[in-house]
Write a structure and sequence with these properties.
heterodimer; A: globular; B: mainly beta; five-stranded mixed beta sheet; 9 strands; 46% strand; globular
């Protein structure tokens, strides 16, 4: 089956620093990838949609200058949390849309803790 | 995408069938019913989807009412590993690159 990986699986960083999270589709090409955020005991909330080779589309209320998304290839999208603050601590999950199967596949998530 | 309504929580005894209901009364004719689940601290896992007919795979069965306004996910023999939050989502399937909109889901607790 289609596999999506995320790296790192967890990260701790200090307030004010930047953190990059990678999302890879391992055995399929994904023209579209989605980034979600999930706070404790809450559901997944879509942050942005990224299309390969073009700028990401951000959901209302998500700061595009704070959450930088790059989708440079059909198998890799990155999310960079810039100048992280403790309130950015969350579970970040990506999903990739398979152009062959027309389905979305989710990564295992990345736990970010900002101290 | 249409909204869905699910009970916030359910309990099920290990080895028994777990029946998780979902209401989607405003579903459109070209929208499918999808089920995902999320085990604690993991990414969502696809379970099953259907349009009109009942569907079955190695994980579960999906029963959709004739008017398509509601559906039930059935885990035939629940195990402790099935404890998770289950999300019912309706969306257009093929040809759509739209995101999946997650509601609050049903937290299923399988008890020994």
């Amino acid at each position: 089956g289609a596999v999506v990986s995320q790296h790192p699986s967890w990260v701790i960083c200090k307030s004010g620093t930047s953190v990059k999270i990678e999302c890879r589709s391992l055995d399929f090409q994904a023209t579209t990838m989605f980034w979600y955020r999930q706070f404790p005991k809450q559901s997944l909330m879509l942050m942005a949609t990224s299309n390969e080779g073009s700028k990401a589309t951000y959901e209302q209320g998500v700061e595009k200058d704070k959450f930088l998304i790059n989708h440079a290839s059909l198998t890799l999208s990155t999310l960079t949390v810039t100048s992280a603050h403790p309130e950015d601590s969350s579970f970040y999950i990506c999903s990739a849309y398979g152009t062959a199967s027309y389905e979305q596949y989710f990564g295992p998530g990345t736990r970010l803790t900002v101290t | 995408d249409a909204k869905t309504t699910q009970p916030p929580s359910m309990d099920c005894a290990e080895g028994r069938a777990a029946n998780l209901p979902c209401n989607h009364s405003t579903i459109s004719g070209n929208e499918y019913v999808y089920w995902y689940r999320q085990i604690h601290s993991q990414g969502p896992q696809y379970i099953i989807h259907g349009l009109k007919n009942n569907e079955t795979n190695e994980m579960a069965s999906l029963i959709i009412t004739e008017d398509r306004k509601s559906s039930t996910l059935i885990l035939p023999h629940a195990t402790l590993r099935d404890t998770a939050v289950y999300y019912c989502i309706v969306r257009v399937a093929r040809g759509s690159q739209g995101n999946l909109i997650f509601g609050k889901g049903t937290k299923l607790s399988v008890k020994p």
